[in-house]
User: Fold these one by one.
Assistant:
Number 1:
Amino acid sequence: MSKYLLRLDDASDYMDVEKWQRMENLLDKYGIKPLVGIIPDNKDASLIYNYKQDLTFWTKVLSWKNKGWELALHGCYHKYTTKEGGINPVNKRSEFAGVSLDEQRKMIRHGIDILKQYGIVTNVFFAPSHTFDKNTLIALKEESNIRIISDTIANDVYFENDFYFIPEQSGRVRNLPFKLCTFCYHPNTMSDKDFENLEIFLKKYYFKFVAVKEIELKKRSKSLFDKLLHFMYFVKR
Ligand SMILES: [Zn+2]
């Protein structure tokens, strides 16, 4: 049986608090514990000029943590500075891919420090626009205890370059034949229809959803099937 993980992107002190509350209510109703990407020092103009600063944000994050939600470091400033796709070229823009190792180390250190300031320790990372490179992994290794990456196309969790990769294959809920499938949502930009479709799916399949803590992290190498999936996704699209 496939297992599902729900991932929520772009939580920060500049977000659509009503939509995030709607998401929280929905997930509470079905007992789903998502993985939430926290932008530590949001400088993304599309977010900070669109939403009023939520001064209760960090308290909210701690309440999510107490509920068993998994928190991830989601970039540093959430600002794109390159047009690189890196090793998971879902988009041709990045905050990390193509940036020098030294700069990447500084960004990771800064992000970790801010989370720490609010009492948050995490071992999961995912980059804005899904894009990062080998130097991002080195920077994470040198500057943090993070050893889990949410992203890349594969059938199941795999272990590579000292990191566990939890694959992320879809931007909406649907039945996919993967052993572990992550659905990635951006609550800030979700429509009523998106919320309704998500609820229809959760009502039917809530029991297939797991929290990050329930995922077995095996030191499995990428299989031929994983490589084929990656190839089909990036080369054939
Ligand atoms: Zn993001």
Note: The longest strand covers residues 3-11.
Number 2:
Amino acid sequence: MRKETGLFDEMHKTLDELNGNGILLVTGDPPNLMTIGWGTLGVIWHKSIFTVMVRPTRFSFEKMEKSKYFSVCILPEGFEKQLALCGSKSGRDLDKIGVCGFTMEKGIRISTPYIVESTVHYECRIVHKHRLDPGTLDTAIDKRFYPKKDYHMVYYGEILGVFRNEKVG
Ligand SMILES: Cc1cc2nc3c(=O)[nH]c(=O)nc-3n(C[C@H](O)[C@H](O)[C@H](O)COP(=O)(O)O)c2cc1C
């Protein structure tokens, strides 16, 4: 049973997890999972926005480019192996959902599914995207994070709902 909750109730924990073992980005039809560690939560255009950053080399990038929606799932403790797998193997080579043994359920406001085992999930609609511009990027960041010039695409997701699993976490 999932209950709607508020962005401001969840954002600190979500940012902690982003900065820790990561959280899972779910996108595409059929869906793919990818661990993300970078992103922001905030308010733009009077909307609650979740930005996620996806390098163009990822299978998830292909999925995102064809999608209008994505979901973001925060797992409870004990799923470190699954987060590591989804952050090191590509959905091009592996059915990550099957290998992790996750149960997927259709979103509450979007068709993109969420992971039933997650504590909290966000449902987002892509309202904007842009590629990082090396011309305006700090040169130290450019040198450190983009030796291959594979600049992230930044996707801005309007948060249509934040839902908490009443039984977990
Ligand atoms: C903790 C962690 C955080 C990560 N954060 C990101 C991220 O924010 N953006 C990104 O493009 N890749 C990130 N990655 C790398 C992808 O998760 C990884 O390349 C994954 O295998 C891509 O899967 P895919 O090809 O199925 O999309 C992260 C990996 C880990 C382990």
Note: The helical segments are 7-18, 59-65, 80-86, 96-100, 139-145.
